[in-house]
């Protein structure tokens, strides 16, 4: 799609009418932050994929071990729903802190 100068001016006028001149800088700032976060997360995902060997590679590299007798242990108790929620909140707080640190850099 090829936009000329008149089309861009018309879009800008429509944005000013819709959001007001005072809110446009905040809107642009929010969009910029969102794009930076999105790019950082996608690059992290790509880096994680590059570092992690595939299942086929891991199986090919693994040496077959002789079977061993493992004593049966009692299953570990499952954490309560409240404990799981607390752990998830802590993880979310750590992720927010790391995102803030990335934003500052």
TrEMBL record:
The gene is tatAd. Belongs to the TatA/E family. This is Sec-independent protein translocase protein TatA. The Tat system comprises two distinct complexes: a TatABC complex, containing multiple copies of TatA, TatB and TatC subunits, and a separate TatA complex, containing only TatA subunits. Substrates initially bind to the TatABC complex, which probably triggers association of the separate TatA complex to form the active translocon. Part of the twin-arginine translocation (Tat) system that transports large folded proteins containing a characteristic twin-arginine motif in their signal peptide across membranes. TatA could form the protein-conducting channel of the Tat system. Its main location: membrane. Residues 83-93 have a biased composition (Basic and acidic residues). It comes from Nonomuraea coxensis DSM 45129. It is found in: Cell membrane. Keywords: Cell membrane, Membrane, Protein transport, Translocation, Transmembrane, Transmembrane helix, Transport. Residues 40-105 are annotated as: Disordered. Residues 64-78 have a biased composition (Pro residues). HAMAP family: TatA_E. It is a single-pass membrane protein. The keyword Transcription regulation does not apply.
């Amino acid at each position: 799609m090829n936009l000329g100068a008149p089309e861009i001016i018309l879009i800008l006028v429509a944005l000013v009418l819709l959001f007001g001149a005072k809110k446009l800088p905040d809107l642009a700032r929010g969009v910029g932050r969102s794009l930076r976060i999105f790019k950082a997360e996608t690059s992290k995902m790509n880096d994680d994929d590059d570092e992690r060997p595939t299942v086929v590679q891991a199986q090919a590299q693994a040496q077959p071990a002789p079977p061993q007798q493992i004593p049966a242990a009692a299953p570990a108790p499952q954490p309560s729903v409240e404990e799981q929620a607390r752990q998830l909140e802590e993880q979310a707080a750590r992720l927010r802190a790391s995102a803030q640190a990335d934003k500052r850099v």
